[in-house]
Amino acid sequence: MKALLTLLLAASCFPALAADSVTFAQHVAPIVYNRCTSCHRPGEAAPFSLLTYEDVSKRGKLIAAVTASRYMPPWHAEPASYEYKDSRRLTDAELKTIQTWVKAGMPKGDLAKLPALPKYPEGWQLGQPDMVVKMPKGFSVPAEGADIYRYERIPLNLPDDMWVRAIELRPSARSVVHHVLYFAEPTDAAVKVQTEQDALAKPGAGMKFRPDMSAMGGVAVGAQPHLLPEGLAIKLPKNSDLMFQYHYHPVGKVETEQSTVGLYFAKKAPERHMTGIMLPVSYSIFSGLNIPAGKKDFSIKDSFTLPVDIEAISVGAHAHYIGKTMKMTATLPDGSVKTLLDIKDWDFAWQDRYFFDQFVALPKGTRLDSEVTWDNSEENPKNPSRPAIQVKWGEQTKDEMGSVSLQVVAKNEADLPALQQALRMHTLQAAQKRIMTEPGFLTWLRQEFGDVLPKGGFGGGQ
Protein backbone atom coordinates (compact mmCIF):
# COMPACT_ATOMS: atom_id res chain seq x y z
CA MET A 1 0.00 0.00 0.00
CA LYS A 2 2.83 2.41 0.84
CA ALA A 3 4.41 1.82 -2.59
CA LEU A 4 1.06 2.44 -4.30
CA LEU A 5 0.58 5.72 -2.43
CA THR A 6 4.10 6.79 -3.43
CA LEU A 7 3.33 6.12 -7.10
CA LEU A 8 0.03 8.00 -6.90
CA LEU A 9 1.73 10.97 -5.26
CA ALA A 10 4.45 11.00 -7.95
CA ALA A 11 1.81 10.91 -10.68
CA SER A 12 -0.05 13.84 -9.15
CA CYS A 13 3.15 15.90 -9.03
CA PHE A 14 4.07 15.09 -12.63
CA PRO A 15 0.79 14.60 -14.52
CA ALA A 16 1.12 12.95 -17.94
CA LEU A 17 0.11 15.01 -20.93
CA ALA A 18 -2.92 13.63 -22.68
CA ALA A 19 -2.37 13.11 -26.40
CA ASP A 20 -5.00 15.66 -27.36
CA SER A 21 -3.50 18.32 -25.09
CA VAL A 22 0.03 18.30 -26.54
CA THR A 23 0.41 21.18 -28.98
CA PHE A 24 3.22 22.71 -30.94
CA ALA A 25 2.76 26.15 -29.43
CA GLN A 26 2.90 25.15 -25.78
CA HIS A 27 4.88 21.94 -25.64
CA VAL A 28 6.89 21.13 -28.77
CA ALA A 29 8.13 24.60 -29.78
CA PRO A 30 10.00 25.13 -26.48
CA ILE A 31 11.87 21.85 -27.04
CA VAL A 32 12.71 22.65 -30.67
CA TYR A 33 13.83 26.20 -29.86
CA ASN A 34 16.00 25.02 -26.98
CA ARG A 35 17.55 21.96 -28.61
CA CYS A 36 17.39 22.29 -32.39
CA THR A 37 17.32 25.79 -33.81
CA SER A 38 20.92 26.65 -32.96
CA CYS A 39 21.74 24.60 -36.09
CA HIS A 40 18.36 24.41 -37.84
CA ARG A 41 18.08 28.03 -38.95
CA PRO A 42 19.20 30.04 -41.99
CA GLY A 43 22.96 30.26 -42.45
CA GLU A 44 23.85 27.38 -40.14
CA ALA A 45 25.04 23.82 -40.78
CA ALA A 46 21.68 22.03 -40.82
CA PRO A 47 20.03 21.53 -44.23
CA PHE A 48 16.66 23.04 -43.23
CA SER A 49 15.12 25.41 -40.69
CA LEU A 50 12.87 24.49 -37.77
CA LEU A 51 11.65 27.94 -36.78
CA THR A 52 7.92 27.69 -37.54
CA TYR A 53 5.05 25.28 -37.07
CA GLU A 54 5.09 24.61 -40.81
CA ASP A 55 8.82 23.83 -40.73
CA VAL A 56 8.43 21.34 -37.89
CA SER A 57 5.12 19.69 -38.82
CA LYS A 58 6.30 19.07 -42.39
CA ARG A 59 9.06 16.87 -40.95
CA GLY A 60 7.24 15.69 -37.84
CA LYS A 61 7.55 11.96 -38.51
CA LEU A 62 11.21 12.32 -39.40
CA ILE A 63 11.83 14.33 -36.21
CA ALA A 64 10.07 11.68 -34.14
CA ALA A 65 12.23 8.94 -35.67
CA VAL A 66 15.63 10.63 -35.41
CA THR A 67 15.03 11.85 -31.86
CA ALA A 68 13.76 8.46 -30.67
CA SER A 69 16.96 6.86 -31.94
CA ARG A 70 18.96 9.76 -30.43
CA TYR A 71 20.54 10.41 -33.81
CA MET A 72 19.34 13.97 -33.25
CA PRO A 73 20.11 16.32 -31.64
CA PRO A 74 23.78 15.45 -32.23
CA TRP A 75 24.85 14.69 -28.67
CA HIS A 76 26.17 11.17 -28.40
CA ALA A 77 27.50 11.13 -24.85
CA GLU A 78 25.33 9.25 -22.37
CA PRO A 79 24.77 10.85 -18.96
CA ALA A 80 28.04 10.45 -17.03
CA SER A 81 29.06 10.75 -13.39
CA TYR A 82 29.65 14.47 -13.90
CA GLU A 83 27.43 17.02 -15.66
CA TYR A 84 28.45 18.45 -19.03
CA LYS A 85 28.01 22.05 -20.14
CA ASP A 86 25.58 23.01 -22.92
CA SER A 87 24.07 19.54 -23.29
CA ARG A 88 21.78 19.09 -26.29
CA ARG A 89 20.61 15.64 -25.14
CA LEU A 90 16.82 15.39 -24.97
CA THR A 91 15.32 14.23 -21.68
CA ASP A 92 13.04 11.20 -21.65
CA ALA A 93 10.10 13.54 -21.00
CA GLU A 94 10.99 15.67 -24.04
CA LEU A 95 11.25 12.58 -26.23
CA LYS A 96 7.82 11.40 -25.04
CA THR A 97 6.30 14.81 -25.74
CA ILE A 98 7.50 14.75 -29.35
CA GLN A 99 6.25 11.20 -29.89
CA THR A 100 2.87 11.99 -28.36
CA TRP A 101 2.48 15.14 -30.48
CA VAL A 102 3.26 13.37 -33.75
CA LYS A 103 0.93 10.46 -32.96
CA ALA A 104 -1.85 12.95 -32.18
CA GLY A 105 -1.59 14.48 -35.65
CA MET A 106 0.74 17.37 -34.73
CA PRO A 107 -1.86 19.86 -33.44
CA LYS A 108 -0.84 23.49 -33.80
CA GLY A 109 -2.39 24.92 -30.64
CA ASP A 110 -2.75 28.61 -29.89
CA LEU A 111 0.16 30.31 -31.66
CA ALA A 112 -0.34 33.31 -29.40
CA LYS A 113 1.21 31.12 -26.70
CA LEU A 114 4.36 30.43 -28.71
CA PRO A 115 7.57 31.24 -26.81
CA ALA A 116 9.77 33.91 -28.34
CA LEU A 117 12.33 32.70 -30.86
CA PRO A 118 15.77 32.37 -29.30
CA LYS A 119 18.12 35.28 -29.87
CA TYR A 120 21.33 34.03 -31.39
CA PRO A 121 24.46 36.11 -31.83
CA GLU A 122 24.76 37.58 -35.29
CA GLY A 123 27.89 36.23 -36.91
CA TRP A 124 30.44 35.16 -34.30
CA GLN A 125 28.91 32.76 -31.77
CA LEU A 126 31.35 33.78 -29.03
CA GLY A 127 31.10 37.51 -29.67
CA GLN A 128 33.53 39.73 -31.55
CA PRO A 129 36.98 38.07 -31.73
CA ASP A 130 40.16 39.82 -30.68
CA MET A 131 41.72 38.94 -34.03
CA VAL A 132 40.13 37.91 -37.34
CA VAL A 133 42.17 36.22 -40.09
CA LYS A 134 41.26 34.50 -43.35
CA MET A 135 42.66 31.79 -45.58
CA PRO A 136 44.79 33.65 -48.18
CA LYS A 137 42.95 31.91 -51.01
CA GLY A 138 40.08 29.51 -51.46
CA PHE A 139 40.39 25.79 -52.09
CA SER A 140 38.14 24.22 -54.72
CA VAL A 141 36.56 20.99 -53.47
CA PRO A 142 35.49 18.78 -56.40
CA ALA A 143 31.92 17.59 -56.73
CA GLU A 144 32.87 13.93 -56.40
CA GLY A 145 35.72 11.68 -55.39
CA ALA A 146 37.56 10.68 -52.24
CA ASP A 147 37.68 12.83 -49.15
CA ILE A 148 40.57 15.31 -49.10
CA TYR A 149 42.89 16.06 -46.19
CA ARG A 150 44.70 19.33 -46.72
CA TYR A 151 46.79 21.73 -44.63
CA GLU A 152 45.97 25.42 -44.91
CA ARG A 153 48.41 28.06 -43.62
CA ILE A 154 47.30 31.44 -42.29
CA PRO A 155 50.17 33.86 -41.50
CA LEU A 156 49.74 35.78 -38.25
CA ASN A 157 52.88 37.95 -37.89
CA LEU A 158 52.54 38.08 -34.10
CA PRO A 159 55.28 40.18 -32.47
CA ASP A 160 54.66 38.65 -29.04
CA ASP A 161 53.42 35.42 -27.50
CA MET A 162 49.64 35.31 -27.17
CA TRP A 163 47.33 33.04 -25.18
CA VAL A 164 44.22 31.68 -26.89
CA ARG A 165 40.95 30.92 -25.08
CA ALA A 166 38.99 29.95 -28.19
CA ILE A 167 39.21 29.60 -31.96
CA GLU A 168 35.99 30.00 -33.92
CA LEU A 169 35.95 28.85 -37.52
CA ARG A 170 33.49 30.28 -40.07
CA PRO A 171 33.63 28.22 -43.28
CA SER A 172 32.45 29.85 -46.50
CA ALA A 173 31.27 26.45 -47.79
CA ARG A 174 30.18 24.74 -44.60
CA SER A 175 28.72 21.68 -46.33
CA VAL A 176 32.13 20.41 -47.55
CA VAL A 177 34.00 20.90 -44.26
CA HIS A 178 33.78 17.78 -42.14
CA HIS A 179 36.32 18.68 -39.48
CA VAL A 180 39.36 20.89 -38.95
CA LEU A 181 42.34 20.48 -36.61
CA TYR A 182 44.24 23.57 -35.41
CA PHE A 183 48.02 23.82 -34.97
CA ALA A 184 50.56 26.55 -34.20
CA GLU A 185 53.76 26.26 -36.21
CA PRO A 186 56.86 28.45 -36.58
CA THR A 187 56.55 30.26 -39.89
CA ASP A 188 59.51 28.45 -41.49
CA ALA A 189 58.10 25.03 -40.57
CA ALA A 190 54.61 26.00 -41.72
CA VAL A 191 55.93 27.17 -45.10
CA LYS A 192 57.82 23.86 -45.46
CA VAL A 193 54.62 21.86 -44.91
CA GLN A 194 52.79 24.04 -47.42
CA THR A 195 55.59 23.63 -50.00
CA GLU A 196 55.61 19.84 -49.58
CA GLN A 197 51.86 19.74 -50.01
CA ASP A 198 51.87 21.92 -53.12
CA ALA A 199 54.41 19.56 -54.69
CA LEU A 200 52.03 16.61 -54.46
CA ALA A 201 50.19 15.49 -57.58
CA LYS A 202 46.96 15.77 -55.59
CA PRO A 203 47.57 18.51 -52.98
CA GLY A 204 46.26 17.52 -49.60
CA ALA A 205 45.54 13.90 -50.45
CA GLY A 206 47.70 11.66 -48.30
CA MET A 207 49.41 14.39 -46.27
CA LYS A 208 51.08 12.54 -43.43
CA PHE A 209 49.92 12.76 -39.84
CA ARG A 210 52.41 15.08 -38.12
CA PRO A 211 52.80 14.27 -34.40
CA ASP A 212 55.44 16.99 -34.07
CA MET A 213 52.99 19.85 -34.64
CA SER A 214 51.66 21.85 -31.68
CA ALA A 215 47.98 20.98 -31.39
CA MET A 216 45.53 23.70 -30.42
CA GLY A 217 42.28 21.78 -30.75
CA GLY A 218 39.79 21.48 -33.56
CA VAL A 219 36.18 21.51 -34.63
CA ALA A 220 33.90 18.95 -36.32
CA VAL A 221 30.38 18.89 -37.66
CA GLY A 222 27.97 19.35 -34.78
CA ALA A 223 30.57 20.79 -32.41
CA GLN A 224 29.90 23.97 -30.49
CA PRO A 225 32.54 26.70 -30.05
CA HIS A 226 33.69 27.04 -26.45
CA LEU A 227 35.73 29.56 -24.52
CA LEU A 228 38.16 27.79 -22.23
CA PRO A 229 37.32 28.33 -18.56
CA GLU A 230 38.60 31.56 -17.05
CA GLY A 231 42.29 31.30 -16.20
CA LEU A 232 43.10 28.73 -18.90
CA ALA A 233 44.51 29.31 -22.38
CA ILE A 234 46.75 27.74 -25.04
CA LYS A 235 50.02 29.36 -26.02
CA LEU A 236 50.33 30.84 -29.51
CA PRO A 237 54.04 31.71 -29.81
CA LYS A 238 55.23 34.82 -31.60
CA ASN A 239 56.44 34.30 -35.17
CA SER A 240 53.98 31.41 -35.52
CA ASP A 241 51.44 30.72 -38.22
CA LEU A 242 48.15 28.95 -37.83
CA MET A 243 48.05 25.61 -39.60
CA PHE A 244 44.68 23.96 -40.19
CA GLN A 245 44.28 20.38 -41.32
CA TYR A 246 40.99 20.30 -43.20
CA HIS A 247 38.97 17.20 -43.90
CA TYR A 248 37.01 18.11 -47.04
CA HIS A 249 34.07 15.96 -48.11
CA PRO A 250 32.68 16.28 -51.68
CA VAL A 251 28.91 16.85 -51.69
CA GLY A 252 27.90 16.52 -55.34
CA LYS A 253 28.80 19.98 -56.59
CA VAL A 254 31.99 22.00 -56.74
CA GLU A 255 32.44 24.27 -53.72
CA THR A 256 35.18 26.78 -52.92
CA GLU A 257 36.08 26.94 -49.27
CA GLN A 258 37.85 29.97 -47.79
CA SER A 259 37.37 30.06 -44.03
CA THR A 260 37.47 33.09 -41.79
CA VAL A 261 38.87 32.48 -38.30
CA GLY A 262 38.28 34.35 -35.06
CA LEU A 263 40.85 34.22 -32.26
CA TYR A 264 39.91 35.01 -28.65
CA PHE A 265 42.84 35.91 -26.43
CA ALA A 266 43.30 35.77 -22.68
CA LYS A 267 44.44 38.98 -21.04
CA LYS A 268 47.40 37.26 -19.42
CA ALA A 269 49.27 33.98 -19.37
CA PRO A 270 47.48 31.24 -17.41
CA GLU A 271 48.72 30.15 -14.02
CA ARG A 272 48.16 26.52 -14.96
CA HIS A 273 48.79 24.85 -18.31
CA MET A 274 46.71 22.14 -19.94
CA THR A 275 47.78 18.79 -21.23
CA GLY A 276 45.98 15.87 -22.81
CA ILE A 277 45.65 12.26 -21.70
CA MET A 278 44.89 10.10 -24.74
CA LEU A 279 43.93 6.46 -24.27
CA PRO A 280 44.69 4.34 -26.23
CA VAL A 281 47.78 6.46 -26.89
CA SER A 282 48.37 8.19 -30.21
CA TYR A 283 45.00 7.23 -31.68
CA SER A 284 45.88 3.51 -31.34
CA ILE A 285 49.00 3.64 -33.54
CA PHE A 286 50.77 1.34 -31.08
CA SER A 287 47.79 -0.82 -30.16
CA GLY A 288 47.83 -3.28 -33.04
CA LEU A 289 44.71 -1.90 -34.67
CA ASN A 290 44.02 -4.59 -37.27
CA ILE A 291 40.32 -5.39 -37.63
CA PRO A 292 39.37 -8.55 -39.53
CA ALA A 293 36.67 -8.30 -42.18
CA GLY A 294 33.30 -9.10 -40.62
CA LYS A 295 34.50 -8.65 -37.02
CA LYS A 296 31.58 -7.08 -35.16
CA ASP A 297 33.13 -6.28 -31.79
CA PHE A 298 36.86 -5.61 -32.14
CA SER A 299 38.09 -3.67 -29.10
CA ILE A 300 41.21 -2.06 -27.69
CA LYS A 301 41.70 -1.08 -24.05
CA ASP A 302 44.26 1.07 -22.30
CA SER A 303 44.89 2.22 -18.72
CA PHE A 304 46.94 4.95 -17.08
CA THR A 305 47.42 5.65 -13.38
CA LEU A 306 47.72 9.30 -12.42
CA PRO A 307 51.06 10.13 -10.80
CA VAL A 308 49.73 13.47 -9.47
CA ASP A 309 46.45 15.13 -8.53
CA ILE A 310 44.69 16.56 -11.59
CA GLU A 311 41.51 18.37 -12.57
CA ALA A 312 39.70 17.34 -15.76
CA ILE A 313 38.28 20.06 -18.02
CA SER A 314 36.76 18.20 -20.95
CA VAL A 315 36.63 14.83 -22.66
CA GLY A 316 36.25 13.76 -26.28
CA ALA A 317 36.79 10.84 -28.62
CA HIS A 318 37.80 10.08 -32.17
CA ALA A 319 37.45 7.21 -34.62
CA HIS A 320 36.39 6.79 -38.23
CA TYR A 321 33.32 5.21 -39.85
CA ILE A 322 33.23 1.84 -38.13
CA GLY A 323 33.97 3.10 -34.63
CA LYS A 324 31.15 1.90 -32.37
CA THR A 325 31.60 2.64 -28.66
CA MET A 326 33.90 4.94 -26.68
CA LYS A 327 34.23 4.83 -22.92
CA MET A 328 36.52 6.24 -20.24
CA THR A 329 36.14 5.61 -16.53
CA ALA A 330 38.11 6.72 -13.48
CA THR A 331 38.66 4.29 -10.60
CA LEU A 332 39.45 6.46 -7.58
CA PRO A 333 41.84 5.39 -4.82
CA ASP A 334 38.84 4.51 -2.61
CA GLY A 335 37.66 2.01 -5.24
CA SER A 336 34.69 3.98 -6.51
CA VAL A 337 34.28 4.06 -10.30
CA LYS A 338 33.20 7.22 -12.13
CA THR A 339 32.20 7.47 -15.78
CA LEU A 340 33.85 10.33 -17.65
CA LEU A 341 32.56 9.51 -21.15
CA ASP A 342 30.24 6.84 -22.53
CA ILE A 343 29.31 6.86 -26.22
CA LYS A 344 27.30 3.80 -27.20
CA ASP A 345 26.84 4.56 -30.90
CA TRP A 346 29.71 6.55 -32.39
CA ASP A 347 28.95 8.69 -35.42
CA PHE A 348 31.87 9.92 -37.52
CA ALA A 349 29.68 12.73 -38.85
CA TRP A 350 29.10 14.25 -35.39
CA GLN A 351 32.16 14.80 -33.24
CA ASP A 352 32.09 17.10 -30.25
CA ARG A 353 34.12 17.81 -27.15
CA TYR A 354 32.26 17.54 -23.87
CA PHE A 355 33.17 20.18 -21.28
CA PHE A 356 32.46 19.35 -17.67
CA ASP A 357 30.17 21.79 -15.90
CA GLN A 358 32.76 21.99 -13.10
CA PHE A 359 36.38 20.85 -13.07
CA VAL A 360 36.53 17.17 -12.08
CA ALA A 361 39.03 16.49 -9.30
CA LEU A 362 40.89 13.20 -9.82
CA PRO A 363 43.46 12.43 -7.11
CA LYS A 364 46.88 10.85 -7.46
CA GLY A 365 46.51 7.08 -7.82
CA THR A 366 43.31 7.26 -9.85
CA ARG A 367 43.33 4.70 -12.68
CA LEU A 368 41.91 5.88 -16.00
CA ASP A 369 40.55 3.09 -18.21
CA SER A 370 39.43 3.51 -21.79
CA GLU A 371 37.89 1.10 -24.27
CA VAL A 372 37.16 1.73 -27.95
CA THR A 373 35.25 -0.78 -30.06
CA TRP A 374 34.74 -1.09 -33.81
CA ASP A 375 32.06 -2.90 -35.83
CA ASN A 376 33.54 -4.10 -39.13
CA SER A 377 30.58 -6.25 -40.07
CA GLU A 378 28.40 -5.76 -43.12
CA GLU A 379 25.44 -5.39 -40.76
CA ASN A 380 26.93 -2.05 -39.67
CA PRO A 381 25.17 0.52 -41.90
CA LYS A 382 28.06 2.95 -41.38
CA ASN A 383 30.64 0.54 -42.82
CA PRO A 384 31.82 2.13 -46.10
CA SER A 385 33.06 -1.19 -47.52
CA ARG A 386 30.77 -3.75 -49.18
CA PRO A 387 31.85 -6.49 -48.80
CA ALA A 388 33.64 -5.78 -45.52
CA ILE A 389 37.43 -5.64 -45.77
CA GLN A 390 40.30 -5.89 -43.30
CA VAL A 391 40.87 -2.47 -41.73
CA LYS A 392 44.14 -1.22 -40.21
CA TRP A 393 45.35 2.01 -38.63
CA GLY A 394 45.54 4.87 -41.11
CA GLU A 395 44.52 8.46 -41.82
CA GLN A 396 42.09 7.91 -44.69
CA THR A 397 38.46 7.62 -43.68
CA LYS A 398 38.28 3.97 -44.77
CA ASP A 399 41.22 3.27 -42.45
CA GLU A 400 40.67 3.45 -38.70
CA MET A 401 42.03 4.94 -35.53
CA GLY A 402 40.47 5.55 -32.16
CA SER A 403 40.94 6.94 -28.68
CA VAL A 404 39.34 8.87 -25.84
CA SER A 405 41.14 12.01 -24.71
CA LEU A 406 40.89 13.89 -21.44
CA GLN A 407 41.92 17.56 -21.25
CA VAL A 408 43.39 18.28 -17.82
CA VAL A 409 45.47 20.54 -15.63
CA ALA A 410 47.65 19.43 -12.74
CA LYS A 411 46.09 20.55 -9.47
CA ASN A 412 49.48 22.01 -8.61
CA GLU A 413 51.31 23.49 -11.61
CA ALA A 414 54.64 22.26 -10.23
CA ASP A 415 53.40 18.68 -10.82
CA LEU A 416 52.77 19.17 -14.55
CA PRO A 417 56.25 18.00 -15.71
CA ALA A 418 55.83 14.76 -13.73
CA LEU A 419 52.46 14.14 -15.40
CA GLN A 420 53.84 14.82 -18.87
CA GLN A 421 56.84 12.59 -18.28
CA ALA A 422 54.59 9.75 -17.11
CA LEU A 423 52.46 10.17 -20.25
CA ARG A 424 55.55 10.04 -22.47
CA MET A 425 56.75 6.88 -20.72
CA HIS A 426 53.32 5.28 -21.09
CA THR A 427 53.39 5.98 -24.82
CA LEU A 428 56.95 4.78 -25.27
CA GLN A 429 56.13 1.56 -23.41
CA ALA A 430 53.22 0.96 -25.77
CA ALA A 431 55.50 1.59 -28.76
CA GLN A 432 58.24 -0.67 -27.40
CA LYS A 433 55.77 -3.47 -26.74
CA ARG A 434 54.57 -3.44 -30.33
CA ILE A 435 58.12 -3.16 -31.71
CA MET A 436 59.09 -6.26 -29.69
CA THR A 437 56.04 -8.31 -30.68
CA GLU A 438 55.56 -7.32 -34.33
CA PRO A 439 58.45 -7.65 -36.75
CA GLY A 440 58.51 -4.83 -39.26
CA PHE A 441 56.58 -2.35 -37.13
CA LEU A 442 59.62 -0.14 -36.47
CA THR A 443 60.39 -0.06 -40.21
CA TRP A 444 56.79 0.94 -40.94
CA LEU A 445 56.92 3.62 -38.23
CA ARG A 446 60.05 5.16 -39.71
CA GLN A 447 58.61 5.04 -43.22
CA GLU A 448 55.39 6.70 -42.14
CA PHE A 449 56.71 9.35 -39.76
CA GLY A 450 60.51 9.37 -40.15
CA ASP A 451 61.35 13.06 -40.22
CA VAL A 452 58.45 14.17 -38.05
CA LEU A 453 58.73 11.79 -35.10
CA PRO A 454 58.83 13.90 -31.91
CA LYS A 455 62.27 13.84 -30.36
CA GLY A 456 60.91 13.08 -26.88
CA GLY A 457 58.56 10.36 -28.07
CA PHE A 458 54.80 10.52 -28.43
CA GLY A 459 52.89 11.89 -25.46
CA GLY A 460 50.72 14.61 -23.99
CA GLY A 461 51.60 18.22 -23.50
CA GLN A 462 50.86 21.78 -24.51
Q: Average pLDDT across residues?
A: 85
| Shape type | globular
**Spatial order of the strands in the main sheet?**
1-10-4-7
Strand content: 25-35%
Second-tier CATH architecture of the largest domain: Sandwich
CATH topology of the largest domain: Jelly Rolls
Biggest beta-sheet profile: 4 strands, antiparallel
Q: Give the number of DSSP strands.
A: 20
Radius of gyration: 24 Å
Parts with pLDDT < 50 across at least 5 consecutive residues? 1-16, 452-462
Distance between the termini: 61 Å
What helical percentage do the residues reach? 10-25%
How would you sum up this structure in a few lines?
Helix content is 20%, strand content 29%. The chain is α+β, with helices and mostly antiparallel strands and 462 residues long.
